[in-house]
Specification:
binds zinc ion, 35% strand, 25% helix, DUF1922 domain-containing protein, 1 helix, single chain
Length: 63
């Protein structure tokens, strides 16, 4: 199943959503938003790929 790496419109942090879902809730701040309204960072072919992209994004922003 394809996943999308999205940036939360409220806190700006990346999280993974299933490509077919329409709305998503941010695991960090709890905001629920429409996937069409969020910034798409990258598409990933699996949840594992999506998590690895997110880890890199979070590591990059921490430096
Ligand atoms: Zn958030």
């Amino acid at each position: 199943m394809e996943y999308l790496v999205l940036l939360c419109p409220r806190c700006g942090r990346p999280s993974a959503a299933r490509a077919r879902s329409r709305s998503h809730s941010c695991p960090y701040c709890g905001a629920t938003f429409q996937i069409a309204e969020a910034t798409l960072v990258e598409r990933a072919p699996s949840g594992r790929e999506a998590q690895s992209i997110i880890r890199k994004l979070l590591e990059g922003s921490a430096k």
